[in-house]
Amino acid sequence: MTVRPVTDVPRPPERAKPRETRLRALDGLRLVAALMVAAYHYGGRGGEVTRAWGSSAERQFPTLHEYFAYGCLGVQVFFVISGFVICMSGWGRPLKSFFASRASRLLPAYWAAVILVTAVFALPVVAYHAVSPSDALVNMTMLQQPLGVNRVLGVCWTLWAEIRFYALFALFVVLPGANRQRVIMFCAGWTLAFVIAQGAQMPLLDIVLMPEYAPFFIGGVGLYLVHRDRHDVYAWGIVVVSFLIGQHYAVRELWNATDPNAFAHRTTFGIVLVVAFGFIAVAAIALGWLNWANWRWLTVAGALTYPFYLVHEHLGWVAIKAYHQTLDIPSYGAFLLTVATMLLLAWLLNRFVEKPLTPRLRNALAKSRP
After folding, report:
1. What is the pLDDT averaged over residues 323-345?
2. How many Cα atoms within 13 Å fall on the side-chain side of residue 98?
């Protein structure tokens, strides 16, 4: 009788990592970031919103406009969240499924928002100019930004950044198959590449590698690694380096104390504080410290965030003018009513556009041959 070596004994199959439970606190943070951006667009800047109020937002909000001016950093918070979520959703998923998931998530509400804003701005009673029919059609592709075409949605520039992040992550992580080592190499490689691109001053590389936004996406990816293993030293290193570089870019782009014509003067301390808030908030979620925030309404808040983000700026101008100038509602009341109106519109888009169309588009893309 032959005794089999111990090395030949078959090993039991590895247990698959359990599916991620929904992090409802992350949904709530999404809405917080969207409301920050809305506060900036309604009361923290000049431009077209001045026409909506009938005067500068500085006069409408003598004290709060200084704080609203920091709301633009909600975008950086969004990017950190996006890095976390995309790494989570792309882990263990084939490329076609990843593409179908991202496209079906972004496109239905986006198409509806483009059509809606174009139609509203074309009404004779609305004082804002719609883009040309040709430009509106190009906007349906989400590629209007690099093509230099007039934008229907002011916020769509962030979607162009998201698309580039998705493409890089799909090419270097999802396509070969996500694992810890590959994700770490992706983060390290992207960081080194955008630093070199910045030093080389090559516009093409800047477009691909987007140095000013990459640290926030990379930091979010690192925080997802922390979520998988809070003792992962490499993951924490990715997060810390990303924060240090990210706050630099945020300060460089948004610090305007030397501009005498600035709407409001942001301080370097304030900018760094808001950036730190974004990283710390996602870190708290990654570490499970906010698992107690498990209320169902946070899921609803997360579902409303994307359509709210799409429509709140341009249609918010229309609502502000109607509430403040036509109905003579005081500025604070008009501000809150506008936010509530845009949230209601977001719910309608989610209920009647996203819910029926997202699964159909996802299934169609997942089943079709590439």
Report:
1. 97
2. 24
